[in-house]
Amino acid sequence: MTINSTNNLYLELLKKTILFEIWQEHEQYLPANVNIPTEFNTFIQTHNLKLVHQIQPNKEKRTYGLDWPAIAHSMIGRKRLDQLHNAMTTVINENIPGDFIETGVWRGGSCIFMRGFLQAYNIQNRKVWVADSFQGLPAPNPEKYPKDTGDTLYTIDYLRVSLEEVQQNFKKYDLLDDQVTFLKGWFKDTLPIAPIKNLAIARLDGDLYESTMDSLTNLFHKISPGGFIIIDDYALPTCQAAVTDFREQHNITEPLIQIDHYGVYWRKPLCIY
């Protein structure tokens, strides 16, 4: 793969746009997830209003993916998006076969960048798989996954982004085409039957033990030797526990490499587990 200044300029601009870095000073309001009286909530809905927090844009938090953006199409931050860029460059340069997938896509920013990368280098033999419920996170199943007990992420409307909104976001970048496939539904239902042959990059952003374990269980054997397993929310105890259990169950000893405060990755070695 030949890297030139035009490719780099496009991909850097794409990252800045996805993360809303160029206009971050205008991103001053964040939806507020608080309990309010029913009468007040009815008034807000009737008048098409929103309850928000006023925030001070913070460049460092955006760099490390520590804020929840009001407008940006990704919340993973610059460090994790740069790592995804490096991983894609590596698998292309090393001829690691396979598609790219993200499980848990929110507004679609990481997957948009995956597709933009393929477009920049005219790579037509790989696909981007976009896997999400498109209705937020699942409620915990404490009987089957006790480590998810008490998690409340499923109650947060901010994390619910519809399939139609994500598709519209792809269209805004002129990147919605037949190299992008959407897998709508809970991971336990969609990933076992997804027609994915092999993967070069699996980026997992499911937060919960259940979602992380479902992704690893159904995708790891499809990752090519030399491919990347990227864990976005490793800092969360639920996610970390799933990664630890899966790696122990499969005798995986490759070191976890820290990306930033939250994310880690490892590469599948040139052998078969």
Automatic annotation (TrEMBL):
> Which InterPro entries does the annotation name?
SAM-dependent_MTases_sf (IPR029063), TylF_MeTrfase (IPR008884)
User: What GO terms are given for molecular function?
Assistant: metal ion binding; methyltransferase activity
An example Pfam family from this entry, by short name, is TylF
A Gene Ontology annotation in the biological process aspect, one of them, is: antibiotic biosynthetic process
Query: What stretches pass through the bilayer?
Result: none
| Keyword terms | Magnesium, Metal-binding, Methyltransferase, S-adenosyl-L-methionine, Transferase
Question: Highest taxon of the source?
Answer: Bacteria
Query: Belongs to which family?
Result: Belongs to the methyltransferase TylF/MycF family.
Give the PANTHER family listed for this entry. MACROCIN O-METHYLTRANSFERASE (PTHR40036:SF1)
Task: Output this protein's name.
Answer: Macrocin O-methyltransferase
Supply the source organism for this entry: Bacillus thuringiensis
